[in-house]
């Protein structure tokens, strides 16, 4: 006959509970922790004595309060939970994800639950999904702006209570631009020089990820200097591709319950590696599209895109009955200046002409370089012929102002022809012929008037 065991199981059970790697909790009906096993310190960071007698909700992530209360009510109503997940705030300030198995004991009027830390598992799942979505968006997004919006959604799933800033850096001009940012704080972000003595500048200049503190006066830029453990409310990671720093991605915490850790830094670095590749690919695609439709010297709309916009504007004008105007202009004496002063100066002059044309037209108008020193301007939504005439005079005056190029001053004149729809034609071909003819008529008139007088460079013969 086998010997009878003398083990006192009632005394052994508490010791067994404390050996479990998952914390065991007993919570009364008012939400107070009346028992918690030793494993709580490994998961929550607190010793059992610190948590015992305190409300379980004191450790809950505030964003999960309502759903957690609803789950607790279901358990207390007799529906056990074996797969409920929510987030808590670790003693070090980091957010952890807990998978619960819980049951209500009616006789004792307590909830007994086992908590499993699934933070690493969920973070791994989120990272995998994030990388897949970034890769998918890099191919599916039709613009860099659309890609940035999707990136915000992806990173928002990883860092849920944060502002996001995506910064691009032009290392030649030392200028930072912000193609995308999301914040509730009142701050008008504008492109400009890299802000010295900021965490953003340190990330871009060193190419190293950085945990730092937020700067309330400079949202998104962060403070420089050492940051104490558990106090990092700003996290910046460089966007690097093929050894070149493209910019940085920054998350900034607005919640006192959430700070960033080295694990968060490593995660964002991992995402940023994929993000930089996707951003560079999308920027190259947009650059190629731009070059296909714009003049490489001046950046203006090229002949092909101009014709497309003219046809589109004509279709719209036919439906609405609005007036549109076409200006065709040529620079008087440009060839002589280009030949005598050199093509480099000629290119500078064409760029300056393009700048002045764009500066003196509306955003809705289209300025194009047709080739050589010939330009067109498409004016839409006009109130009448006088509006077009006023723009013509404004452009002629703007172009006549002296240009200081390569240490010399040049007074450039432009011959400009004007055609109005529908007065001067109802097709693109008719309008272009009328405007072109008007431009050459003005040029002939000026040549006859200036013969033997002053040339277009402003020097007297």
UniProtKB/TrEMBL annotation:
What's in the keyword line of the UniProt record? Nucleotidyltransferase, Transferase
CDD domains named among the record's database cross-references: GGDEF, PAS
A Gene Ontology molecular function term for this protein is: diguanylate cyclase activity
The GGDEF domain extends over 322-461
Query: Which part of the chain is the PAS domain?
Result: 9-79
Q: Which InterPro entries match?
A: DGC-Regulatory_Protein, GAF, GAF-like_dom_sf, GGDEF_dom, Nucleotide_cyclase, PAS, PAS-like_dom_sf, PAS_fold_3
The enzyme's E.C. designation = 2.7.7.65
This protein is called Diguanylate cyclase domain-containing protein
Q: What is the lineage of its organism?
A: Bacteria, Pseudomonadati, Pseudomonadota, Gammaproteobacteria, Pseudomonadales
